[in-house]
């Protein structure tokens, strides 16, 4: 097959491209330029959108012996990922920009362009597996569950999965690094990227404050007592404990957590940890990785990247899904993704719109 290898500049995408070439595919390496001003994004080993990463990807392609190009997708990234991130926080939700980037950039815009250019698919360094199933191509968890990235790929459609190659899904990260050393790829020991690539210093509240300005509000307890004022509700997320700066402890001396965010008034409500417990989720914008279920199904649900799985009953609806968890989950915020699994197979995902609290005895 003729394939585009999306090369971020890290070790995973470099080894994935090399393996695709070894498998006999006609591989072209492509690095995505996602920033209108690359120096405003993270630099060095902590980024995934920096000038250094572009240079690292080019050098890896030279070692592998494949053609290499840079595709400028900064406008698409800004409109679909960065602006969406700001809008979600403004609305009091907690988005996951990596899922959004996979959905709108890496496996929509890139794949669409690749297919239009006559390529058969896209290769990435994600840790997941694509296998043949009874109803077509399926996506499964990686063998190494500690590194598994199927959660952030849960937004892919069946057609996108059919045109995707994930060569690393059967390996651990140490095995991939060792292979990179053997291949002479100098990125073999390059640290993984972390946090949000377009937040230059890692200070998300500060970055949002620069974008949105000051929007005063108050932090209150569940009785409505005002505990202090704040400069913007966008600096908080459901389940947050640190950085509240309340000045005085709760009456019972226990820590307090963010329970609710009301974006119009800017009111942030805090309370005890047990009030974060939820057993019900209403989710919207479903993305099915295969045929959409027509009836309720027993499944497991993952609610955070690298988070635990919860047994659940999932009821598909026309514009979403209704999820009932077997056991309470804590600190789940609207805007996050709920990814549904049948064993290791990814069934689909949806965006959490609302949660239903567990009954506390």
From TrEMBL:
Q: Where does ATP bind?
A: 6-13, 32, 125
Indicate yes or no for the key word tRNA-binding.
yes
Q: What is its EC number?
A: 2.8.1.13
Where would I find the tRNA-specific 2-thiouridylase MnmA-like C-terminal domain in this sequence? 280-352
The job of this chain, per UniProt, is described as: Catalyzes the 2-thiolation of uridine at the wobble position (U34) of tRNA, leading to the formation of s(2)U34.
Q: Which GO terms describe its biological process?
A: tRNA wobble position uridine thiolation
**Protein name as catalogued:** tRNA-specific 2-thiouridylase MnmA
Query: Which PANTHER family has this protein been placed in?
Result: MITOCHONDRIAL TRNA-SPECIFIC 2-THIOURIDYLASE 1, TRNA 5-METHYLAMINOMETHYL-2-THIOURIDYLATE -METHYLTRANSFERASE
Q: Which InterPro entries match?
A: MnmA-like, MnmA-like_C, MnmA-like_central, MnmA-like_central_sf, Rossmann-like_a/b/a_fold
Localisation per UniProt entry: Cytoplasm
Q: Name one GO cellular component term.
A: cytoplasm
The annotated site for Interaction with tRNA falls at 126, 336
Residues of the tRNA-specific 2-thiouridylase MnmA-like central domain = 208-271
Specify where it is mainly localized. cytoplasm
Q: Which gene encodes it?
A: mnmA
Keywords annotated in UniProt: ATP-binding, Cytoplasm, Disulfide bond, Nucleotide-binding, RNA-binding, Transferase, tRNA processing, tRNA-binding
CDD domains on file: MnmA_TRMU-like
Protein source organism:
Mumia flava
**Span list, region Interaction with tRNA:** 147-149
Q: To which protein family does this belong?
A: Belongs to the MnmA/TRMU family.
Q: What class of enzyme is it?
A: transferase
